[in-house]
Amino acid sequence: MQPLKMIIEGSFFDSQLYSGRLYLWKTDGSIQIINWDKLIESITIQPRLRLAFECGFRQSDYLYGTQWDLIFKDEEIRSLITNKFIQLSQNPIEVSQSLLKNSEIRHQKNPIGFPHSDLLIYSNRLYVGTGDGIFSTTCYKENEYPVSTRPRKIMDAPVLGLSASYGSLSLSCGSDGLFEMSVKNKMKDRWNLNSDEDITDNKAHNLSELHSSSSRWTFQSIFSSSHHNSGYLADFERERDPHPSNYYSATRKFRRIISSEEIFAKSSYSWGHQDKLCQVRDRTITVVQFHPWDEENTFLPLGELQLRDFKGEVVTGDSALFGFIIECDNGIVVMDSNLENIWIPGEPVNWRIFSRSKFYENQLHIVYDDRLEIYSFNDDYFVNQETKKAGIKYYEHKGRSRNQNR
Question: Comparing C-alpha atoms, which of 314, 317, 297, 131 is closest to residue 214?
């Protein structure tokens, strides 16, 4: 099944979709903030296709979860829903500048250096990695400026890539290696970034001096990717507080660096995210399932997946719920969770997935010189999450509201 596609024309550099807002970094150095929910509601769609459209672009979690198991066992219902996605995918959805403008919340000056190397929004706070270091500022909905105009510098070293989890940032600092920085609020006993008070301990800890271009969290551990080496896993163990009242509290303890060669028994570009570790070589993705809680089967081989559409050398790779994404010299290839290849031609300026999100985890944003293309992949609703080989496993979110979206 082909993904849904939305096209927003304009000169953009990057995008973020977070908690009902689309943040667009423009090439002139400004930031345009869009009310995403309002934009989606304003797009005219045939009423019979509205369910597919809403699931595709605004609420990806709606058809996930065990509550739909019984319904999806009915072939007629499953076929009906699938056909809605197929019909909607026949033509791209084009968003005009006037429609975008009508959903605009604010168009403001970028308070942080431009261009950046990477950025993310984590618990209502924007973190931006640049050649001059990392900057942080708030993204509160009630503020006059959606992106606060009072950023602070929290690290001096240049950063190529960053990722967030467990109240910490993983920092890929090129030849300086892989670092981790705690961003928990020291004023409280729990991780909470919703206060400007004492945001961070301003101390980055070096995990490895090996080159790191990008990194992703694999549960409590961190996988670093680089073309200067084959990648490596910064392996942590998770220790729970034995006291019953602190059952959900846990600490992470660093154990060791595990090379990609040790995991895959060969050398090539590798990446990892959550339960899937991947290595690509000669148009083949070798997939290993990561079980940090199982000492005997920590790295369980899932086999090799063949890439049909693959042009040029590998630039970078990542994993989402819907499959694996590999950027090549001449475009992006997505291997979805049904093991189908989707080739998206053209060299991108930037691209993003939103795996920490609850509502947008099926989306792939690709920025080109004159437009933003948003792809929505929806095959994964119908795939067995326990046995799938491509894409990270879906875990049901417990007790999270839209305002808690990451």
Answer: 317
What are the structure tokens assigned to 95, written together? 């968003």
Q: Which residues contact 65 (CB under 8 A, 6 or more apart)?
A: 396
In a domain, 191, yes or no: yes
Which residue shows structure tokens 């290696």?
A: 177
Structural domain count, the chain:
1
Separation between Cα atoms, residue 386 and residue 188, nearest integer Å: 37
What is the predicted pLDDT for the residue at 400? 41
Q: Are 329 and 311 in contact (CB under 8 A)?
A: yes
Residues 6 or more apart in contact with residue 93 via CB below 8 angstroms: 4, 5, 6, 7, 43
Give the strands of the sheet with 341-345, arranged side by side. Answer: 314-320, 323-328, 331-336, 341-345
CATH of the domain at 225: 2.130.10.10
pLDDT tens sequence across 300-314: 999 999 998 777 889
**Is 70 exceeded by the pLDDT of residue 189?**
no
This model's pTM is above 0.85: yes
The H helix count followed by the E strand count for the chain is 6, 29
Q: What is the residue type of 325?
A: I
Residues 216-246 pLDDT 10s: 999 999 999 999 999 999 999 987 656 555 4
Of residues 83 and 201, more confidence is placed in: 83
